[in-house]
Design brief:
heterodimer, A: mainly alpha, 2 strands, globular, B: mainly alpha, ABC transporter involved in vitamin B12 uptake, BtuC, two-stranded antiparallel ribbon, two-stranded antiparallel sheet
């Protein structure tokens, strides 16, 4: 067991968790909307990119941005349907609706793409880098760099621009924001589109690590739940920290204790934190 | 007046449901459909307590459902316990699990409750899948026929024809229980906490306590459904945690309308009849179920009853305008 290698694995895993979680964190923070179709959107992002590569013969580097675009459009349609409930802030119904959407995606994807596992191959996944004992791939480097860039950009937009101020304003008090002439509906749509696009990007970068299945959905992103709640609902910096922390925890727990029970262990950590600090670590 | 008698009428209707398979021709398929509907309806009533009366979304009731099934299967197969003993164990295990989940989600905001219960269900599935004590990915096969005897009289059997009386009785007891719950102190407190939390607090009701109590009460209902399901299939496995059951529960509750005594039963019946007799393939049925769930909440949040009210109001308005 090489500790340095496990730390690298932890960083790689953690950047993946944070990247998958980011859209969701923003959505939860700004619209108080829990999207239980998040896992299926991840699956849809991966399969869209895969289909573009397979059917249209385009390269990976074109397919992933196209998938991001497609999922963004899906986001417009979905949020358009949910807009009335979102404006009413009818959170109970919204959660169930997203669950229904996820179930439709799962059935629909199985019908369109078939039930077999598919190889979604990134050309840089096979290009590896070695430093003596240590080993990682170029895909890992791109994922890590992409995650850090996206988080930095998002932090800047949310905290330093007028757009970010508008989103935070709607998150704080949608009615008051509307009194000030902010179109809250537009903000909700924008945030939801960001979620769908971000999860498609995450799928494009993270999914090539293993074969993709139309049934993967939620199980693949279960740990993002932990990231979102641990990081403090809606906190950008918090979810980056929680993502890396969880990546380290998973890598070390998997190597030292048991790989089969890493999710269960991470969940126990979550339960403990919820009892001790009900609003997450980053809560003010 | 009508309101007062409608509940007794509903219960009478449910009692008469005992004869549905006979009226439907008495074929084994009729018994299978009715038994399955009764079992899954009871499962849905567990989640119904939370969604309809507490106004929150528990996505963890598949845990209690599966816990009931696993308790029955493991104790019947490994230790040869009879039906009463396994049912008691199913209730006990589900209450312990609900206490742990309930305590951890006592204080966080509402959507964290849904998040955590959902994550718990996925983790529980992973544990059941990997832990050989629970049968691992193969599950537990060869659950013996159910035997329930009381004072020398009772039922024993494994076929759906033999299990139907048990399923019907379980459904009836569940309905009576829900009926009592709606009028109980806990039931009315839960509704008040949902509708007007400030008033509830002002009247000295501890919202956390009420939430916790309702959660604990709801778990054994789903667990008992899982208990009977284990005998019906003679097998339990990690598939009891699948989101199919979760989506089915939620759809069954919202399709007719929340807070209706017979709502989840009618909802379950509609879904199972579609899947058993008008199926368009597994993936197609998923699309149907998910679409129904989303469409009901997006278009008619009150369920089919809302559509009915809308139509009757329109009719009454039209009649009123033509008179004047």
């Amino acid at each position: 067991m090489n500790i340095a290698q496990q730390i690298i694995n932890g960083l790689v895993l953690g950047s993946g968790y944070a990247l998958i979680a980011i859209g969701w964190t923003v959505l939860l923070g700004a619209a108080r909307l829990v999207n239980f179709a998040h896992g299926q959107l991840y699956m849809l992002g991966a399969f869209t990119a895969w289909a573009i590569m397979q059917k249209l013969g385009l390269s990976y580097f074109v397919a992933v941005p196209l998938a991001v675009l497609v999922l963004g459009l899906v986001g417009v349609v979905l949020q358009g349907m949910m807009l009335r409930l979102v404006m009413e802030q009818n959170l109970t119904s919204l959660m169930i609706v997203t669950l229904g959407f996820g179930y439709v995606f799962q059935g629909g994807a199985a019908k369109v793409f078939g039930g077999d596992p598919q190889a979604f191959i990134s050309p840089v996944e096979t290009a590896s880098i070695r430093f003596g004992e240590l080993w990682f791939t170029w895909q890992d480097v791109i994922t890590l760099a992409g995650t850090l860039l996206l988080f930095a950009a998002l932090w800047l937009v949310m905290n330093r621009t007028r757009l970010g101020a508008v989103v935070r304003c709607v998150a704080e008090d949608p009615k008051l924001a509307q009194l000030f002439g902010i179109n809250a509906a537009l903000v909700y749509i924008g945030v939801f589109v960001f979620e769908c696009a971000a999860v498609a990007l995450a799928a494009g970068l993270v999914a090539p690590r293993s074969p993709i299945l139309t049934s993967m959905g939620f199980d693949e992103v279960i740990l993002t739940f932990v990231v979102v709640v641990l990081g403090g609902i809606g906190s950008v910096g918090g979810s980056l920290l929680a993502g890396f922390g969880l990546g380290m925890f998973t890598a070390l727990f998997g190597a030292l204790v048991s790989p089969a029970y890493t999710t269960a262990a991470a969940f126990l950590v979550l339960l403990a934190v919820l009892v001790l600090r009900p609003r997450g670590f980053a809560a003010r | 007046m009508m309101k007062k008698h409608s509940t007794s009428f509903a219960l009478l209707l449910a009692a008469l449901a005992y004869f549905v398979p006979t009226v439907a021709g008495g074929a084994p398929a009729a018994y299978t459909a009715c038994t399955t509907i009764a079992i899954l309806a009871v499962m849905s009533y567990g989640a119904d307590l939370i969604l309809s009366y507490l106004g929150e979304v528990s996505l963890g009731h598949t845990i209690f459902w599966a816990a009931g099934g696993y308790a029955a299967a493991m104790l019947a197969v490994n230790l040869g316990w009879n039906g009463w003993a396994t049912a008691g164990a199913a209730v006990g295990v589900s209450i312990v699990l609900a206490s742990v989940l309930g305590l951890a989600t006592l204080r966080p905001r509402a959507f964290v409750f849904s998040l955590v219960t959902y994550a718990a269900a996925v983790v529980a599935m992973e544990v059941a899948f990997n832990w050989s004590f629970l049968g691992g990915s193969d599950g537990i096969v060869g659950v013996p026929p159910l035997s329930l005897t009381l004072f020398g009289w009772g039922v024993a059997g494994a076929s759906n024809v033999e299990l139907w009386p048990v399923a019907w009785l379980l459904l009836l007891v569940t309905l009576l229980f829900i009926h009592r719950f709606r009028r109980s102190r806990l039931g009315t407190s839960a509704l008040m906490v949902q509708m007007n939390p400030d008033l509830a607090t002002a009247l000295g009701i501890d919202a956390h306590k009420v939430r916790f109590a309702v959660f604990i009460v709801s778990a054994p209902i789903s667990a008992l459904a899982g208990w009977l399901y284990a005998y019906q299939r003679a097998y339990v496995g990690p598939d009891m945690f699948e989101s199919y059951f979760l989506v089915l529960m939620l759809t069954a509750i919202v399709i007719v309308g929340r807070r209706l005594l017979l709502g989840p039963l009618v909802g379950t019946a509609l879904i199972i009849v579609q899947q058993m007799f008008f199926s368009i393939g597994g993936d197609g049925d998923k699309i149907v179920l998910g679409t129904v769930l989303a469409a009901i909440l997006l278009l008619w949040p009150k369920g089919l009853v809302g559509v009915w009210d809308f139509l009757t109001v329109r009719m009454a308005m039209r009649a009123g305008s033509s008179q004047s």
